Amino acid sequence: MLSLLVVALLGQAGGAERAPPPPPHGSEWVGLPGESTAPSPTEFPAASPPQAPHLPMPPTIEEPLAPGFSLPLTPRPERPNLVSLHGAAPLGPWKRAGSVSLGFPMLSARMLMGVTPKLDVGVAYDTLYGLMHDVRASARWNLVGGENLSLGVVGDVGPAFYTRKAGFDFHGARWLTGRRDYNASGGLVLSMQGSSPRASRFFLGARCLLSVDTGPVQTEPLGGTPPPVLFSANFLSEVGLEAPVSEWVSLVFRVGMDLHGRSDDSLVMVTGSAGVVTALP
Question: pTM (2 decimals)?
């Protein structure tokens, strides 16, 4: 009996030594069915993502191609304007140009074409706004040509037509212009231009106008019978400029003074006009 009691006590003591320690607080719910047994992310250090290789940025408008490098900016040079109709500089072989101007007392149109390096030929038309139509063949010959100074000879000849007869046109188109049935003029023109490609061209012209009246009318009661043909001379002068606005187009401004040699014409007539000169294809 005593031996059985000793054996029971020894068994309890050995069992107490082999019993596991109690679980820590809060761990009694660990290991439930369906729960993942993977280790916590905090148990292992997080792997850093791989760094992308550094690529140079492409150059932009604001940034130069390379540090300290810049492209030189050279402005495009302007092409010179060489188209002149009222100056003395020639157009050149087979080059054409035309002009239209509006003023007092006439509306004018002109066209020239170069046939040699120094000679231009063409046509001119003047109208006193429908009261007179003057059509002439014209020519220009360059005597002295330079970069800044030119001197030339100009001339024209042609008929004129009037809407009113001379007997009823005492202070009309004939009186204002000094022209008659046929007109021919000739003289000199001097032009000056600066060195820049688009410099304005100043011109000064003087010519003599010879008018031929094939049907003169006697205006004085006791003047007798007029001759069948009457010649009269007039002096024409003008000054102006051609202001280029592009390689082919220029604005033209002219002011002139005409002195008439016929007694039944106006003694002095001041003229003025503004227009445009352009190259023709």
Answer: 0.70
